[in-house]
Design goal:
5-stranded mixed beta sheet, protein transport, GspL_pp_dom, T2SS_protein-GspL
């Protein structure tokens, strides 16, 4: 899945703002990163391509609430309920902040709510949209999920250390004075640091630190389940559904985790194709055997037929010629058609005129009702005749048994 991941600037964007970005072609490996004006940001290509906006850790506040029963994502009263729950915890007026609820929660659950400045977020998203890079998802740089990890980010003059886990996100200046405020991490807790502040992190916290570029962290953020595009920033439900389908399909086609499933699907398809070919071969062989049997009967019955083109038609012609030679009546003869019609007509009904041609009898003046026509046709069918209405006339002909 091709993605452009844009790190939103902390201040209001202008025409000269350079946006930090990262790009990926498969959703897992970093393809490119850098800084660029919004109009020059690379465009993602291909199925499931998307633009993901990353909200800086300093721009998001996290609050934990207990959702009332009956309140869940998609509920019309969700925004009002969150405002009521957070009214006393927020420093700003509820109308000036944007709220986003933790994914996958239900009424009665304890859930995290992300809070950020609404006007700032709107300006940043509008700037991207004006540059032809509208954001399809909005994710936090750090989210309250997973086990505890420490990440040192920024520049040496303004270094920040972030502790994130399912218990919350805490961002503090990276200094000796703030270290006691950090939760005590276990020995195996991940410790990541941007190259610019790695030495400072090792000096203050003498533990092994793994180097991680900011772009690599944003790529991980883009894979988060969180999406802050809620309420007024939410896409239409249809667009979001189509995006999820496209993203899921792209993951299925490209993700290494799905490689065994892809091989299994290819193997299953190959087995089905082999089975279909075997079934088709068997049906063709059976059809050829039946065709050969019909031709053999024609040759044995009428040895004078030298060339066989259409065995049923040729056999019918030979039988008709033999019938004429012996004087045997045919179901297509006029007298046979008249006898069958007389036996099937309702009492007191007689045609006013007949027209016979090519083994077909047309009886006029009957004016049968639909029920009477069905009754006549039902009585003629066991005799080998088909009756149809043509206006006020009844058309009678021997059924083709081929």
């Amino acid at each position: 899945m091709s993605s452009l991941i844009v790190f939103l600037p902390p201040g209001a964007p202008t025409g000269t703002t350079e946006w930090a970005y990262a790009s990926t072609t498969d959703g897992h490996a970093l393809a490119d990163h850098g800084r660029s004006p919004a109009a020059l940001l690379p465009l993602p290509r291909g199925a499931g391509a998307e633009v993901v906006a990353v909200v800086p850790v300093q721009a998001v506040a996290w609050h934990r609430v207990e959702l009332p029963k009956g309140i869940a994502p998609g509920t019309p009263r969700l925004r009002a309920a969150l405002e009521g729950l957070l009214e006393e915890q927020l420093l700003d007026d509820t109308d000036s902040v944007h709220l986003a609820l933790q994914p996958g929660v239900r009424g009665g659950d304890t859930a995290w709510v992300a809070v950020c400045d609404r006007a700032w977020l709107r300006e940043a998203l509008q700037a991207l949209e004006a540059a032809g890079r509208p954001a399809t998802r909005i994710v936090p740089e750090f989210a309250p999920e997973g086990s505890l990890s420490l990440t040192a980010i920024g520049e040496p003059e303004q270094a920040t250390i972030v502790a994130s886990s399912a218990d919350g996100v805490l961002a503090l200046p990276l200094s000796a004075a703030t270290l006691p405020l950090l939760p005590a991490p276990p020995e195996d807790a991940p410790r990541l640091a941007e190259p610019a502040v790695a030495a400072l992190a090792e000096q203050l916290l003498p533990q092994p630190w793994v180097l991680q570029q900011a772009a690599q962290r944003w790529l991980q953020s883009a894979r988060s389940r969180w999406d802050l595009a809620q309420f007024e920033f939410a896409s239409s439900s249809r667009a979001r559904a189509m995006k999820k389908i496209a993203t899921g399909w792209s993951e299925l086609l490209r993700s290494p985790e799905w490689r065994p499933a892809r091989w299994a699907a290819v193997l299953l398809l190959a087995v089905h194709l082999a089975g279909l070919n075997a079934w088709a071969w068997k049906e063709n062989a059976s059809l050829a055997d039946k065709r050969e049997a019909v031709q053999r009967i024609l040759r044995e019955t009428f040895p004078n037929v030298r060339v066989i083109v259409d065995a049923p038609v040729q056999m019918e012609r030979e039988v008709a010629a033999l019938r004429q030679q012996t004087g045997t009546a045919s179901p297509r003869d006029l007298d046979a058609l008249l006898a069958a019609l007389a036996a099937a007509l309702p009492p007191g009904r007689a045609p006013s005129a007949f027209d016979y041609a090519n083994g077909q009898l047309r009886a006029s003046g009957l004016a049968l009702s639909p029920d009477e026509l069905r009754t006549v046709a039902a009585q003629l069918r066991p005799l080998g005749y088909a009756a149809t209405a043509d206006g006020a006339a009844l058309v009678l002909a021997a059924e083709d048994v081929r």
